Amino acid sequence: MKKLLLIVAALATTTFSVTSHAQFAKPDDAAKYRQGALTVMAAHFGRVGAMVQGKVPFDAKAAQENIDIAVAMSKLPWAGFGPSGEGATLKNAAKPEIWKEQAKFKDLSEKSQAELIKVQTAAKTGSLDAIKAAFGAAGASCKSCHDAFRI
Amino acid sequence: MKKLLLIVAALATTTFSVTSHAQFAKPDDAAKYRQGALTVMAAHFGRVGAMVQGKVPFDAKAAQENIDIAVAMSKLPWAGFGPSGEGATLKNAAKPEIWKEQAKFKDLSEKSQAELIKVQTAAKTGSLDAIKAAFGAAGASCKSCHDAFRI
Hints:
2 copies of one chain form a homodimer.
Chain A: H1 2-12, H2 27-52, H3 60-73, H4 97-100, H5 102-123, H6 128-149
């Protein structure tokens, strides 16, 4: 598992873009994709949050594993918000502004990815206090994008 | 991107289990998680399939990137089919048999993961023919699990 952690951490800190290969046949396909990637990312980020909030006992290895997966996942959802993802008919919370303000959306999404990496870096210390210190800003970066672009 | 491919490939071939950290508060949370992970996995596997089927031009780098992500994603969904994932009320296609035949389910899920890794290994050769030779068995392994456990 330690080897995995190192590998996922390396993956997570690698500049990663699948946009060039991420054309979706239908906007609904893109919506399902981005919703899926965000759900998985949030689940793992939330497990770290549960430790930060004292809802579950702190487990340094579990915190590291979950933030590593969250960081790795954080590279994926954005492709679903590209041009081929506009106009989905299935229930989704994407505001039309996403496609009118792609530069702002990209900036906020990249800020969130950067904040997640800070939590990951903190997790490497094995210190819950270090994770707590970084977690709030990461959560806030998610919220700032949701406030602007999520219904 | 080459560095990423090596890293993701390494990740994908690492024995990876998040089960021990994958308790879900509600069965619906587990259902959303597994559906999300499977959706992302299928999207990337499907992009390789589109090349295999000649629907899009073969791009060795894109094929490698997508199968690498599919293999990495293939480690995640199964945690959502654990004990905490039984009894979801949201729309989902999981048959109750999954929780009655966990050993069989685990076996089929692991076979699919192994077949995906064979496609990934084939993709490393840069040969579409090699990918085609491995792709069919991978798709069939998905189907065999769906036939047994998906409504």
